[in-house]
Amino acid sequence: MGNNRVTLADVARRAGLSKTAVSLVLNGREGTRLSAEAHQRVFAAAEELGYRPNIAARSLRTRKTATIAFVSDVVATTRFAGGLIRGALDAARERNHVLLIAETQGDTSFEQHAIDAMIDRQVDGVIYAAMATRRLTVPPALLANPVVLLNATSPDGLPCVLPDDEQAGHTAARTLLDHGHRDRIAVVGRNRLKEHDPEVSLAADARMRGIQRALSEAGTSLGHEVFCRDWLPEYGFSAMRSLLHRSPRPTAVICMNDRLAFGVYQALADAGLGVPGDVSVISFDDDPIAAWLRPALSTVAIPHEPMGRRAVELLLDGNTAGRRLVPMSLRRRSSVAPPA
Predict the structure, then answer these.
(1) Which positions fall inside the HTH lacI-type domain (predicted)?
(2) What CA–CA distance (Å, rounded) separates 67 from 64?
(3) Does 132 share its domain with 169?
(4) What share of the chain is helix, strand, coil (3-state, %, to 5)?
(5) With a threshold of 0.85, does the pTM exceed it?
(6) Measured between alpha carbons, how far is 94 from 315 in angstroms, rounded to an integer?
(7) Tens-place pLDDT, residues 154-180
(8) By residue range, what is the domain housing residue 278?
(9) How far apart are the C-alpha atoms of 60 and 19, rounded to whole Å?
(10) Which of 160, 192, 211, 244 is the most exposed place for a label (fewest CB within 10 A)?
(11) Quick count: other Cβ atoms within 10 Å of Cβ 45?
(12) How far apart are CA 107 and CA 239, in angstroms?
């Protein structure tokens, strides 16, 4: 008998019990006076017949569909942030929920279509995710459901899960201080737009606050800082070349992300200088490139999988007030050493 034709009545006949008794057992509801042997007969009959519950009918009774919508801009097709989805998938599976994933690629018309399709399926809640940590506006159609923002905030104060970028900045600077670097620490990647427009970035300002707090606690301050148009290798390269013409030359560089650090490495190599023998380098994100640089790059990792997991937990637990910061861990590699 095919799975799609097996009914509760079929299971009841196989188990020799009433439909009501079988329904109570399979739905785990209390109050049945059936023996343990009768319970086993029900489960055995359901397994033998390949019975699957009617989810649509159950959802009408419970008003729950055991599905979660995961709507993002470019997370799903990005290797770097795919961990957000992996973490959410794992947490949903542990709670016997299915994750329905839609990626908009920034197309607002398709986003509306995807959201309508999710809502039509009566999802139990929505995770609305962004690739870059930023403030965004949530489509009004989503607000009829429980919503948790992932890697984002919103002007209306919806519950959100974010990486703790300020703590990460403090960790990066503290790591250099602990290795003996003090007044010759430089930052590559200052960017006024990223630091002052939360719709562009929340990470830049938070990382700088953490860096400056750690240096202030140590009674010192930045030796140099270089502004960059974007956080890409070519701007890291030109920034490091400019730093090499300043006096005194920095003994350590904090890069605002790993792609900038890649450019910094190239500029140092072109100048005949080594990492970390001449200049220590530390960064943020733990992009896959970080472990492949030589020497491997020490960086503070964005906790994508724990963030995705936390978003699902908040959504299903209903404990959705406020902002949750997920700690970022330092990946200690080979790019930091005491100053020469």
Answers:
(1) 6-62
(2) 8
(3) no
(4) 45, 20, 35
(5) no
(6) 14
(7) 998 899 999 999 999 999 999 999 999
(8) 165-302
(9) 18
(10) 192
(11) 21
(12) 34
